[in-house]
Amino acid sequence: MRNILGKVAFFTAFTALMIFILSPIVWILLMSFKDYADVIAYPPKFLFTPTLDNYRDVLVGAGSDTAGEAAQFRQYLLNSVIVSGGAVLLSLIVGVPAAFALSRQRIRGSDHLAFTFLSFRFAPELAIIIPLYAFFQQVKLYDSYIGLILAHQLITIPLVVWIVRTFLADVPLEIEEAAQLDGCGSWRVLWLIVAPVIKPGIASAAILAFIFSWNNLLMGLVLSGVSTRPVTVGIMEAIGFDQIRWGWMAAAAMIAAVPGMIIAVYLQRYIVSGLKAGIVK
After folding, report:
1. Measured between alpha carbons, how far apart are the two ends of the chain, in Å?
2. DSSP designation for 243
3. Which residues are registered as beta bridge partners of 72?
4. For residues 103 and 169, is the Cβ–Cβ distance under 8 A?
5. Sign of the Cα pseudo-torsion (42, 48, 54, 55, in order)
6. Is the peptide bond before 43 cis (omega within 30 degrees of 0)?
7. Which of 22, 107, 117, 185 is deepest in the core (most CB within 10 A)?
């Protein structure tokens, strides 16, 4: 009897948690298929005639005005791909050797240094965004892809260093020592011997870093201009001076969420292993 009650309680709690997590996503999805009258209807309509007009306006545009907005939104998507992809690539180039050095080299206080890297991820962005904005204005990095990629290192490098360093801890030292006996230097040992072994760890670090970079709002809101605005900021253009285009905003949000959804579905095992290595372990 206790086992049955325990299973019922667990199932009830799990169902309630899933409803709590998924209800906002489902609500936005339903809103993206509503016209404006159905969106603002009170009480809310759960039975309505779905329409694809919002997605058409976001991606293609119905007229000359909306066609320009659709082209802008596609540019915002491209900006996010460039910034997030560039940030992850730079983080891997810098973070993997850094993780290797912290894991293998006898550096005094390496554990404290590694935790310092991780603490950058916990630090509130509001504490550094204004000084960063002033600095970027001085060095002409404001509204540039390079500036945003460098700023996103505060998000991506801590994840890469911490996750890769944890995976490196499971690699036997004998493999590296054998390579060194054959004349391999530290760089060749890292890229030719160790990197293929920890490829799942590097992949999970890159995936998680990309997701966090893609979803970031504050960096793009403060440090980007018209030419480099990411999609998370572009969605806010649905807020006008006279009304909020809820259907357009919902459709844009669902489109912007597609890369993360695809990654979560098809690369789930890498994400889970990365979360276990970087957080639980």
Report:
1. 36
2. -
3. none
4. yes
5. positive
6. yes
7. 117
Give 144 or 126, the one with higher predicted confidence: 144
CB 30 within 8 A of CB 226: no
Residue 263 vs residue 153, higher pLDDT:
153
Structural tokens at position 104:
């293998």
Provide the pLDDT confidence category of residue 281 given band limits of 50, 70 and 90.
very low
Query: What are the CA-CA distances from residue 5 to residues 13, 15, 18 (Å)?
Result: 12, 15, 20
Q: In the predicted model, is pLDDT for residue 181 greater than 80?
A: no
Any idea which residue has 């060095």 for tokens?
Answer: 139
Place of tokens 């590694």: 114
The fold adopted by the segment(s) 56-280 is MetI-like fold (1.10.3720)
Residues 179, 189 contacting (CB under 8 angstroms): yes
Q: Which of 141, 157, 32 is nearest to 86 (CA)?
A: 157
Q: How many CA atoms lie within 13 A of 242 on its CB side?
A: 0
Nearest CA to 168 among 255, 250, 260, 104? 104
> What are residue 244's DSSP bridge partners?
239
The separation between CA 257 and the C-alpha centre of its own chain, rounded to angstroms, equals 10
Is the pLDDT reported for residue 266 higher than 80?
Answer: no
Give residue 214's identity as a one-letter amino acid code: W
Cα–Cα distance, 180 to 6 (Å, whole number) = 55
Scan for tokens 């909020």, then name that residue: 244
Mean pLDDT of 177-184: 75
Average pLDDT in the chain: 81
Q: Kindly give, in sequence order, each residue whose CB lies less than 8 Å from that of residue 83, ignoring residues fewer than 6 positions away.
A: 145, 148, 149, 152, 213, 220, 228, 230
Distance (Å, whole) CA 254 – CA 252: 5
